[in-house]
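Researcher: Please generate the 3D structure of the following complex. Treat every line as part of one assembly.
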Amino acid sequence: MKRWIVFWNILAKDMRTYYLKPPNISWGIVFPLAWTAMFFIRSGSGLDSIPAMLPGVMAVSVLFGTTSMLAVTVTFEKKGRSFERLLLAPIPLELLMLAKTSGAILFGVANAFVPVLMAMFLADLSGVAWGPLVPAIILIAVSSTFLGLFIAVSVSEVFEAQTFSNFFRFPMLFLCGLFFPIEKLPVFLRPLSYILPLTYGADVLHASIRNAGRMPLALDFILLVVFCAALFTVSLRNIRRKWIT
Amino acid sequence: MTRPPAIQVRRLAKCFDEVQAVVGIDFDVREGELFGFLGPNGAGKTTTINMLTGLVRPDSGTIRIAGIDCSNDPKAAQHLMGVVSDESNLYPELTGFENLGFCGALYGMDKPDREARARELLDRFGLADAGGRKFAGYSRGMKRKLTIAAGIIHRPRILFLDEPTTGIDVASARQIRQLIAHLNAGDTTVFLTTHYIEEAERLCDRIGFIVKGRIVRIDTVEDLMRRTEGRHVVEFAVTRGAPTLCEAILETFPDLQCEAVSDGAVRVESSEPVRIGPLVRFIEDRDAEVSEARKVRPSLEEVFVKVTGIEATAMKQEKEKGKMGGGA
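Model: Done. Output below.
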């Protein structure tokens, strides 16, 4: 049994049927563009503000792109029962779900670089540390995708997937330190910040783009990996418990 | 050394919340056999098939597929299986050809192999011209045929078919039955659930009746039919008043059993050969004409009704209603 054939074909099918559809490509471009424009206008400090707002825009683009897409596509396939075909395939569930989530991860990473490409024409990004930035974006995309998977396993309708995604996404955005420093949050909210994967991803982004990280990069990366592993493990356990009843 | 049964089930049970869907069933399906699993809605057919294919975890009992214990190595067992669920669950946005190719890839088939096989199956299922069209645009019968083709793309040893002909047109259903028979002739073991008794009678080597999660009988079609041997049934087509005539026949001929099949048909049953002459005269003396009298061969449907106590037509109508309304 050539497992790479299964992995590649699930990924290729999802890319073609979901992520590379014109509405999603336009969403992937328009959404970061709109966020960039919004923050740019709001900051009022001209082109110099671009590096400061880049981490926020990148993280938002990844978070919204990945969680929505995965939760919706998996719920859609579950509802149409085509997901049963995947569960019946003679491959381990771990490999199947990795294949299923890879499309969303790639979509999220591509979304993150749309604002970077735009920023390249408007600001000087020579000081950006790409070494930690690229793996951080990948890990943010992985953790957000696995959050989308966790949501998909918890709901049965597509609209529930959307609603439940927002339940996680909006608090995460405001608590992770992207737009307000964690130190300025009310004391009782601060512990919540530290149980969000995006907090550590945002810290690496701030460190890479503006040299303004608060925690050691190694700690950020370790915690991001731990969050990814935990979300994937919990989601797989829930799939076994809820979908293979 | 003898080969293990294609499917071996022992004391298999499953409970959903308060409902005991399957109650400790046992059966074997031999290699190359076409085994029919019959029962009304909610009898436990789909739960059983889902347990056999690994979509539902049994509460207790064992399942062996070609000797492989499914609780130890479900994925090895799944490699030998093809599964056609009771709904056409392919990808609406892919073409027929792409759907088959994707399903082949799920079993690790190389691209040239799965593409050649997809073309062969599209041709065999009469879908060659529709292979480039999206699945969403297929008719119900075409969807069903493509779903079966997807179930056999990887040449499985054992094929599970859940209600393959429900809710589709007569011509497509007939073609699907021919395809099932052809597959079975080619040594594929087939596990078929259906509520069409005539379909099971025509196709299956052996049949299991399941009611309320329990198997009430398993036998070959011939042995099941033998239960009705020694019964003699004659049906009279009459011009009017079959129910009244029936009551009169029962009063006058106490040895006979009589039933009005419709307003224009009376069915008489006896353990002795039925003497037609006196009955025709009796009916015609009551101002009704007999246009036809014919001996009726007892059907598997009657065996089913006798064994399960469930009216087969009611079962069929219930299922069709469920399908049209989108239920399963």
